[in-house]
Write a structure and sequence with these properties.
The longest helix is centred in the C-terminal third of the chain and has 4 residues. The chain has 1 helix and 14 strands; from the N terminus they run ββββββββββββββα. The strands form 5 sheets. Strands 7, 10, 12, 13 and 14 form a 5-stranded antiparallel sheet that branches. The protein is 2% helix and 51% strand.
């Protein structure tokens, strides 16, 4: 444990053989007649985070972002890394320039899951993923992994998918919130 002292002094103390858990150690510093007391709190975390479920809803309902809930065994998440995939077997538009520099959209059927977005975000939930570049009517899945304050990074967990839709879709009319 490293403790910053007054006047630029640093005091060190080694504590060994600690098991995973939360700890607190009282400190007393005495210099002459002056006495200061404090408490150091810290956690020993030796396990990677495990995500049990990623919920991105069924439809986006015209929102400007996907609201993704992540359920895990961790309370000390420092950040989430996410990837958004367009699912395979869907007809997608592919812009093609032809003579005269006119752009036409040519429909293609995707044969594989395609990474379309990724990023890192804070531990705040739900994770808000911008939806502006996602194509209306297509289905996407979200993969998420967590990193904890101790530095451990878990494995990816994947959602069952969300369809990008507008708010007038019948399923969205009575939608009460994320996801």
């Amino acid at each position: 444990i490293q403790m910053q002292g007054a006047g630029g002094r640093i005091h060190n103390s080694t504590i060994s053989n600690l098991r995973e858990g939360n700890y607190q150690y009282p400190l007393t510093c005495t210099i002459g007649d002056a006495r200061a007391e404090g408490l150091i709190r810290f956690a020993i975390d030796l396990t990677k985070p495990v995500i049990s479920r990623v919920d991105d809803g069924t439809y986006s309902c015209g929102t400007d972002a996907l609201n993704v809930m992540v359920y895990s065994n961790e309370v000390n998440v420092s950040e989430y890394y996410y990837e958004v995939y367009r699912l395979a077997g869907q007809t997608v538009s592919s812009p093609v320039k032809n003579i005269g520099n006119r752009t036409n959209a040519t429909p293609l059927v995707s044969s594989a899951k395609t990474l379309v977005l990724n990023g890192t975000t804070t531990p705040e939930l739900p994770i808000r993923i911008p939806a502006s570049s996602l194509e209306q009517g297509l289905r996407y899945s979200v993969r998420v992994k967590a990193q904890v304050k101790a530095g451990w990074v878990g494995e990816f967990a994947e959602s069952d998918g969300v369809t990008i839709s507008n708010a007038s879709l019948a399923a969205c009319v009575n939608n009460s919130g994320p996801p």
